[in-house]
Design brief:
The chain is an alpha/beta fold. It is built from three helices and eight strands, in the order E-H-E-E-E-H-E-H-E-E-E. The longest helix has 11 residues. The protein starts with a strand and ends in a 10-residue tail after the last strand.
Length: about 140
């Protein structure tokens, strides 16, 4: 058994696609029209195009909005992505106008930072180990 797809609820799929591809650096994998304006829309890491897909899932269900609002109010990230160098990624993303709610901070054997994905979620970026390495979001 392995994880094939995971999801993040987004307020606007088109805005999410732009943010997750043009800003974070993922690539579009699937884009299948569903009912109405909704799409089965996934992105993947360019470093692993056949790896786990992230579904940019419409947040229309009535339970999603209060769930997301509670997480954001408490500063809890919805998901996390591994990067090679949190400090470098933080500077790159800030230069692109990304708003961070938590600056890079060491937490034992990892370094993390938390950003706003512009679609109603906080996303944590995480660097494993203490030695910075350069690279894109994975």
């Amino acid at each position: 058994m392995r994880i094939n797809i995971t999801s993040v609820f987004v307020d606007d799929q088109e805005r999410a696609l732009r943010f997750y591809t043009e800003v974070l650096g993922f690539v579009k994998k699937q884009d299948v029209p569903l009912s109405g304006e909704d799409r089965w829309l996934t992105v993947v890491s360019p470093e692993n195009p056949n790896g786990t897909e992230l579904l940019l899932e419409p947040s229309g269900h009535r339970a999603v909005k209060p769930f997301k609002e509670a997480l954001v109010a408490d500063g809890i990230p919805f998901t996390q992505f591994t990067v090679d160098d949190v400090a470098a990624e933080y500077e790159r993303l800030r230069g692109l106008g990304v708003r961070f709610t938590r600056e890079p901070a060491a937490m034992g054997p990892v370094t993390t930072a938390v950003l706003d994905d512009t679609c109603g979620n906080l996303i944590q970026i995480l660097q494993l180990g203490s030695q910075p390495r350069h690279g894109a979001v994975r």
